[in-house]
Every structure is written in structure tokens, then in C-alpha cells.
Amino acid sequence: MRLIRAKDYDELSAIAARVIGAQVTLKPNCVLGLATGSSPEGTYKELIAAYNRGELDFSQVRTVNLDEYVGLEPTHDQSYAYFMRDRFFDHVNIDLKNTNVPDGMNPDPAAECARYDALIQSMGGIDLQLLGIGPNGHIGFNEPGDTFSLGTQQIKLTQSTLEANKRFFASIDDVPTHARTMGIRDIMQARRILLVASGENKAQAVKGLLTGAISPQMPCTILQYHPDCIVVADEAALSAL
Ligand code: F6R
Questions:
Q1: What is the DSSP track for 140-178?
Q2: Which of 58, 100, 145, 176 is deepest in the core (most CB within 10 A)?
Q3: Which residues are catalytic?
Q4: Which pTM does this prediction carry?
């Protein structure tokens, strides 16, 4: 695991965008695994800025997102499909046909999860997976549990994740209770991982990530076994170390 220390969120975002930009430059038709949430928003802004400066070309890039809420249409403004278009895809020259988010509306969860795993395989796997981290150590929506998950699956969000995500909804009762997420095996099979962590509320999770015993109770700890995992964290996120 390689740790890059950033002063603050802005520096973290600039560093993460440079890592992704290098990937796109080296392999223009790369497969990027993408995340939503507050952590990567600044990274997407930096990538858009680099695109506007003429430094990056996304025309051949293919993407697979980590997760999606169950029951939200892609047009719902809190769906992750909407987030990706709003914060990134609509601002660069990516072909929307090359972008993928799990379908939260497919009435058959098992079929949808199998479809998503087969899709990732058919793309040749993920070159670079961008991750945030939950305050409880989740990656994607792989919540703390008794085992590490394998492929894409439908999961019930924990109370702490519902609490963390209610800021985006009118009330906690409006936060979807289930999501579909790539599994730990899918994430671990990415050839490179880039995890971004910002803020004091991530400090315990980041401490676990970097120094904790590997345990499904803190899902991020499995990344210690990944051969090419880069962690970019700001001072606040590193404050428990
Ligand atoms: C989002 C995702 C989640 C978030 C995590 C942190 O696609 O998979 O694991 O990365 O919940 O969320 P933020 O960045 O909003 O603190």
C-alpha cells in the first residue's frame, strides 16, 4: 500500500486526478472503476479542468461504477447514475454508451448482479478503481460483516451508512435501505486501486485501513493485500495515526 499525504481536500483531489489522468494517457481505452459521494467530487472537478485545458481525452475510456441504490431511477437526482452524469460524464467527451452503473431498478437482483459481474469480465477487468471509504470502513457498499463478499450483490445498508447518507435526502426515511454493489473480489481484481479519504470522520477507518488487522468487520483492511493500492489522504483523515 502506498500512502500519499495531502494537506487538504483540494490537494488530495489534484493528486488523485493526476493519477487517473496518467492512467487515461497511458491507456486511452482503459476501464475506470468509479465511485460517487463527497470524496471523489473534487477529483472529478480536477479531471474536468484538465479536459478543458486539452490535456485529457476520454473518448475511448470505459467505466464501471461501484454501486447504485435499489429503487431509484437513473433520472432520480440522488441516484448514482445521475450523480455521475451531473458531476463528471456530462462535462467531458466520454461516450455515455461506454459508462456503466448497476441497475437499481432491475426487479431481479440476482440477475442484475450476475449481469454486472459478466460485464466487468467482458470489458477485460478494471484498470484503475477509484474508491472512497465509509466511516465504518466500507468500500463500495460492502458493509462490515462476517465474511468478505465476492461478486456484485444486493446488500442492506447499515444504520451508520443510512445516517451518513441522509444528508442527501429530505429525511433518513427517504434513504433507500438497499443497494447493489461490486463485491470485494471485484474490487480486489482491479489492477490498480486509488482510495481517497478526507476529513476527521474518516480517521478511524483510515487507521484501520493502514494499520488494522485484516477483518471483514473493517472491509477496507483487505486492501492491504492488494499489490498496487494507492491511498491519498488529507491531514484530517490521517489524524488518528
Ligand atoms: C460510493 C461508495 C461509498 C462511498 C463512501 C464514502 O460510490 O461506494 O463507499 O465512497 O460511502 O462516501 P463519501 O465520499 O460521501 O464520504
A1: TTB-S-SS---S-EEEEPPHHHHHHHGGGSSSGGGS-SE
A2: 58
A3: 67, 136, 138, 143
A4: 0.97
Burial degree of 187 (CB within 10 A; 0-12, 13-18, 19+): buried
Q: Which atom of ligand 1 is nearest to the CA of 80?
A: 7
Residue 53 cell numbers, joined: 485545458
The Cβ-side half-sphere exposure at 52, using a 13 Å CA radius, reads 9
Going by alpha carbons, the residue nearest to atom 1 of ligand 1 is 36
Q: Which strands sit side by side in the sheet containing 229-234, from one edge to the other?
A: 2-6, 229-234, 192-197, 128-131, 31-34, 62-65, 99-100
Pairing mode, strands 67-69 and 178-181: antiparallel
The model's pLDDT over 43-68, given as tens digits with 9 standing for 90+, comes to 999 999 999 999 999 999 999 999 99
pLDDT digits 0-9 by tens, 176-186: 999 999 999 99
Pocket of ligand 1 (CB under 6 A): 35-39, 66-67, 132-134, 138-141
Low-confidence ranges of the chain (pLDDT < 50): none
Distance in Å from the first CA to the final CA of the chain? 16
Name every residue whose Cβ is closer than 8 Å to that of residue 114 and which is 6 or more positions away in sequence. 151, 152
